[in-house]
Amino acid sequence: MDNIKVIYMEYFKLNNGEKMPVLSFGVFDIKPENTKEIVLKALNVGYRSIDNAQVYYNEKEVGQAIKESDVSREDLFLTSKNWVSNAGYEKTIKGFNKTLEDLQTDYLDLFLIHQPYGDYYGSYRALHDLQKEGKILSIGLSNFYPDRLIDLIMNNDVVPQVNQVETSPYFQQWGAHEIMKKYDVLHQAWGPFSEGINDLFENPILKEIADKNSKSTHQVVLRWLYDRGIASACKSTHADRMKDNMDIFDFELTKDEIEKIKEINTGKSPFIDHNDPETVEEFNEEIV
């Protein structure tokens, strides 16, 4: 493995005083048999934040990669997410303990409720109790849009530190972002590249901005999010692309460029509508 080291990283300060890296390496849709090698590659490139989830089914392999790497646990920011089949207080505790076992660690830096379905109020109480015990440093949500985010905040004693929602040039989430800012919840983007659909990387607006800044369209997207105050979780299996994705801290987009990118916005996800009744039914079928 090439000994590539990228050591510079910016951080966002969370509402509980903890720090979270701007960029996280996501392991969604990486096959278990390939996960260890790819995570080791990401750590070697310089990633220190790993975004995982129970439903990715590769937590054991991520844990093995961390064990075999020369990066100390204290230098890592580990995230995982509680799946809907573990919704509710007791199931969340049990699922969390399994996640710790698989990742071979005794605490997580961030644990999220993955979907806003089922007994997520019970799950959130479990997260808060685990946080008070020191087993989770920061707690949060994933895929909670403004209505459910506000409702949860107004009916709990602790405000979540992070809300991870799909955010990309196609689905820019301006309104949701303002709500998160209002309640001091860090906005983290999943799917920032929309998996490259509809020739995103060849989009003329992004390419023009990239050429002007001597950067790639990938870097423009991640910098666009950072300039908006949004953290990102993204994935690549190639070391050169991993490194490219991290190299976004030596330029800044202008206000005009950020405004120009708004022209790409469709206002909806190209993948999933969390408010669609069929989506709600599908996720709830996994709750037993």
TrEMBL record:
User: Per UniProt, what is one Pfam family of this protein?
Assistant: Aldo_ket_red
Database matches in InterPro entries: AKR (IPR020471), NAD(P)_OxRdtase_dom_sf (IPR036812), NADP_OxRdtase_dom (IPR023210)
A single Gene Ontology MF term assigned here is: oxidoreductase activity, acting on the CH-OH group of donors, NAD or NADP as acceptor
Annotated NADP-dependent oxidoreductase domain ranges read: 30-265
- The question of whether Oxidoreductase is a record keyword is answered with yes
Gene3D superfamilies, A to Z: NADP-dependent oxidoreductase domain
Keyword presence, Nucleotide-binding: no
Keyword entries, A-Z? NADP, Oxidoreductase
Family per record: Belongs to the aldo/keto reductase family.
Which PANTHER family does the protein's record reference? 2,5-DIKETO-D-GLUCONIC ACID REDUCTASE, NADP-DEPENDENT OXIDOREDUCTASE DOMAIN-CONTAINING PROTEIN
The name on file for this protein is Aldo/keto reductase
User: From what organism does this protein derive?
Assistant: Methanobrevibacter millerae
Q: Please name the taxonomic classification of the source.
A: Archaea, Methanobacteriati, Methanobacteriota, Methanomada group, Methanobacteria
